[in-house]
Amino acid sequence: MKTKFLSLILATSLVGVIGFNGCGGGGTDNASSPPVFTTSNTVGAITGSTTVATIRANDADGDAITFNITGGNDASLFQIDQNTGLLQFLDSAIEDTYQVEITISAGGDLVTQSFVVTVNDNSINNSQRFVFQTEQVNSRDSGGVLVAKEDLFNDAFYESGTNRSYTKSLGIVKDNITGLEWQDNAQPLKDLHGNAEVVCAELTLNGKGWRLPEVEELNSITVRGREAAGTISTVFENLKGDNLYWTNTHAAPFNPASPTFWGIDFFSGTVLSMAFNSERYIRCVRGNPLPVSGDFERISADEVLDKSTNLIWQDDIDVLRSFSWEDALTQCRNKGKFVQWRTPTIEELYSLIDRLSEEGISSEFNFVVPDPTFRYWSSTTTYDGVIYTGFEAWSLDFVTQNMFADSKTTVNNTVTCVRDAN
Q1: Which domain holds residue 40?
Q2: Residue 227, CB half-sphere, CA atoms under 13 Å: how many?
Q3: What are all long-range contacts of 294-300, with beta carbons under 8 Å and residues at least 24 apart?
Q4: Which helix (H) or strand (E) holds 197?
Q5: Are residues 296 and 282 in the same domain?
Q6: 318-354: per-residue pLDDT in tens?
Q7: How many helical (H) and strand (E) elements, i.e. helices and strands, does the chain have?
Q8: Could you point out which of 36, 302, 339, 383 has its C-alpha 20 to 30 Å from the C-alpha of 333?
Q9: What's the domain count of the chain?
Q10: Quick check: helix, strand or coil at residue 330?
Q11: Statement: the pTM of the whole predicted model exceeds 0.85
């Protein structure tokens, strides 16, 4: 089946650069450098969603950058966030070609660029969201002791999720499920976020079109269930240092004066926010972006269906109760007489985050909500053999959108049970 995508094709057209630092006919010793667009010349987005892409730019002087739509034949069909550069259709796009001009401003300098937005067909079905297996095969109780899988009915018992599949050639790892291509031709570089965007945009590894990944994309190659140090898929050969890697996704809340971005620590598997002026590692990606949110619909008084993952989520008053980890496993196992509920894996739980919602989770939910007083259990044990040795399990905080390794015995978290729609 083919799914339609938007390809954002950058038609580089430097319409104007206007400086305000000098006067008269003479020069000036403190003239600023104009901002530059760093967005790759091809960016994909899914039809049916209003989101096109986040337009990126860099200013060598460190001045704050603002984004505005200033022209183009189809300017009235778009809107852009002045601070983040998120370009969106005002309504769902149909198959056609669109043209819009965007102007960036920094320190009094203006640069305008023309973008061509094309709706076309693509053979990769990115309207579906893939929740990958954690690859957890051992079942460990609250004391970290290996037990039979049927004793706990945890992640290792159900082994839910999509199997990973990769092909590597000429320094590029191809994800055969998502269609994304990953750079793996050399040891990763370490740099500031603004420079990282430029590094990917200028990469010419079997062609161009490379970019810094969004957090959903980098998360898709993170494996949190293995009993080994390091959580990146083993197909990757080039790893580096402390394993903290950039994404191009703004962490909430957004502060234009000091922006933070989501990153992933491939040693521990945690997702965390990182300051733009810190140096982190870079792994570039190429291909149509993955969806940033699910397609949620309430199907009963106490159930919400995510049509993009085919998962049904519990959403009733019981979600507000708290349990130890093993009690949470039992709570979901015993829920319902005719359907098979389970405690979600950390990847299933993470799929609930909705980055297009101000609350961070779909408004379809009434009880599964961000709350600073509790986190949500997953069924996935945290084990790296160094820091974590089976006494902890992954949990998720919907307020900060961070993952935690919580003690299975001393911490009580809530749980929202999940089941397959078919």
Answers
A1: 3-122
A2: 14
A3: 294/129, 294/351, 294/352, 294/354, 294/362, 296/354, 296/362, 296/364, 296/365, 297/364, 298/364
A4: helix 193-201
A5: no
A6: 999 999 999 999 999 999 776 789 999 999 999 999 8
A7: 5, 29
A8: 383
A9: 3
A10: helix
A11: no
